[in-house]
Amino acid sequence: MTYRYQQLEKWILQGIRDQRWPPGERLPSIRELCEYKQLSKATVMHALQRLEAQGILEARPKSGYYVTHPANTPSVSSRIAPPRPVTVSDLLLDIMQRSAAFDLLPMLNAGDLPVAMVSLNRCIGRALRRQKGSAHQYYDQPAGDAELRKQLALHAARRGWSTGRDQLCITSGCQHALFLALMACCEPGDVIAVEAPGFYGVLQLLQQLGLKAVEVPTTIDSGMDPEALEQVLTKWKVRACVLSPAFSTPSGALMPEQSRRRILELASRHDMAVIEDDIYADTGFTETPPPIKALDTEERVILCSSFSKSLSRDLRLGWISGARWHERIQHLKLVTQLASSRYLQQGVAEFMADGGYASHLRRQRSVLSARRDQLMRELSRWPHVQSFSRPAGGLASWVEFSPDVDVLAMYHQALKQGVVLTPGPLFSVSGQYRNCLRISFAHPWDEKRLEALAKVPQLIRHAKAGPIL
Amino acid sequence: MTYRYQQLEKWILQGIRDQRWPPGERLPSIRELCEYKQLSKATVMHALQRLEAQGILEARPKSGYYVTHPANTPSVSSRIAPPRPVTVSDLLLDIMQRSAAFDLLPMLNAGDLPVAMVSLNRCIGRALRRQKGSAHQYYDQPAGDAELRKQLALHAARRGWSTGRDQLCITSGCQHALFLALMACCEPGDVIAVEAPGFYGVLQLLQQLGLKAVEVPTTIDSGMDPEALEQVLTKWKVRACVLSPAFSTPSGALMPEQSRRRILELASRHDMAVIEDDIYADTGFTETPPPIKALDTEERVILCSSFSKSLSRDLRLGWISGARWHERIQHLKLVTQLASSRYLQQGVAEFMADGGYASHLRRQRSVLSARRDQLMRELSRWPHVQSFSRPAGGLASWVEFSPDVDVLAMYHQALKQGVVLTPGPLFSVSGQYRNCLRISFAHPWDEKRLEALAKVPQLIRHAKAGPIL
């Protein structure tokens, strides 16, 4: 299904590509477009504003909409749209809720459980059997189990981040940690800088908390661009910046140390909180890099993480280190959920203390790296690909097709064939990335998954050949 | 520690009791009080406003503060204070966070686990061992495990509430459900009607969400007074009413069917949401009464509950039935926490399907009823008690002492002796109930607990004899 504004958007884009309106040219007026295409003013405005947000058009007061310079070489500044309330369209919401959790195929529940999960489950089982007396009649302390926090602090120290158990609070996963972080340091209406492309879960949180997003461009190998962030901070008062410096989704970029230091300098100068989504750090193929939090001398970096990407999504255990907001965060956890399961935390703490987590990570690193290599070989044979990321960690690659490939059309076509794709526009609030896909290598390339992958090139060709209004 | 405004409050109360200012009399002016007691204007105002909130004083514009009619026979209307933002004092916050989870004694982790917990833990262990393939690499659906929701719907049917699994969403406990309910149907600044005395977890939620509380008086045997609620609704636009009709904390009151129907009529007439905290329902000594939700024909009752009071506080599993807000609630759960543990839900579902939960409740009902009886015998021998509740379910009784017993002083004195009390002011936003205590019978009356209980009469005598400024 295509909305009228989307049809108009496509038509204008095609006209720009065909040089009907070359760079610098004024577009027909809103009234002219309404009459010519038989559309309402609201529909025409909607399409023009979306193109403006993508940096393709530029509004000049009392004059009209002009074509900016070619979309393939925009300067960073022309790509930054002003802060806006987040409104996730129903279509994208539907994709997020029903399919974004899957990659290529719906869940299959067969085969053997990995050895790490077997020993983790044994630890959890032992913790359950160790329950005595009326311990189950008491809530755990809001900060979480002290032994688990100790193990997490030890794990942090091994990657160059020196922290203590008192600086950690256990949460129900990383999304819960991000929620607590935003709730603690922002007020409705505040402007939050986010990565573009960036994690859709953050965008939905901003929407629910009434926060505005300003999208900061990232590159597929080094993450958020500090120069672009600086331009944003010069223009707008930004309360917090959410970023994922280690193997961020969708591209798997790893932010270099120089950029990290630069971002902390900017945060200090503009009194901005930094919310670090650290969830992919332990998926690094050679090591777990240190977090930005390790460089934080001003108590302004809130680190959020969980076991979901590195061990199990079904544990629902994460953690947060809340810097100057830590006490408020712990209180918010208490108020919104009281506590986490004590037995579960004890089981995971035992698994870590036994070395189970560290040896799991050692095995996992080479497994993931091999899965990435196999995906890279496939991607290099796909048609109409302009670029794709080759991450050193994480669980996915970001593929950019030529601008006329429409991945939303492709998504629907793929679903009919039982293949689940993750379309680019999920990763933005401004409808960008209609020619991009995230492709995951989180799962083994078994026969069924390879079959699904083999269907994609034909889907790309079809999406490119699709009718343009 | 007593603050200056509290000292002044006590002094004025004493003067009222001594008939220095009889009912209808004007109090000295603010300036006079400042000079006479050598206090700042802010301190004097603070004390006067607190006494006004308690219905002891009445402010008449351009005239001053007047003593209302005697506090022991107030009409309902004089006891209702206007809606106010909730500010929990640091002292109460501290009590809530550190001690309110305990009753009489800190946690003891010894002795045998109850038989129901052993079989529940076996079910959870089996669910862990049944995990296959890469199921742990997928988040559960936001609504929660279908089999657990089916078991909850069957349990609901047995108590006269006909519901379906699609109307239930699994949460991380009842507090999490209450949070989702308030987040879904209210906006900051909205007025929420709450029980007085009522659950402090709700008051803290209102504070964090920027909601205003209006306290509706309850009675110790039948809960929220519908007549008082009607007066409130006539005066103020109330967005939602949070109430716990079955064995509410602190008194254990059970709301009669007539009051339930009356409250639903009022909700309908004033377009108000009803948030039903159902957490104690399964602790009923003879049966689990039906919820108000069973009478809801307009999709305006949100039911919140969990296993914390009836089975285990460490499971962190609750549920919500969100009426017309259900879809939004499910989305909020997704956005703030993604999902709940699938294996855990499967384990609990198996425990319920095996009949383990039903037989646990059967045993538990008579155990709790005997524990209540033993507490009642003790309470009837305590000094300076004016009344106490004799609930037919729940885990506590509400004890009201003569007005000159100060339970906050008693709380501090008790802590020094290793006894943990739950003081009355925890259950109100207006500093009421300084002469009330909640006493729990959640735990077995073992020797240590009986020893702690035996210390209370002396503590009461001491708190009554305490110096009054």
Automatic annotation (TrEMBL), chains A, B:
Q: Which UniProt keywords apply?
A: Aminotransferase, DNA-binding, Pyridoxal phosphate, Transcription, Transcription regulation, Transferase
What family does the database annotate? In the C-terminal section; belongs to the class-I pyridoxal-phosphate-dependent aminotransferase family.
Q: Which protein is depicted?
A: DNA-binding transcriptional regulator, MocR family, contains an aminotransferase domain
> Do the record's keywords include Calcium?
no
Q: Which Pfam family would be a valid example here?
A: GntR
What positions does the domain HTH gntR-type occupy? 2-70
Example GO molecular function term? Answer: transaminase activity
Q: Does the keyword DNA repair apply?
A: no
Q: Which domain of life is it from?
A: Bacteria
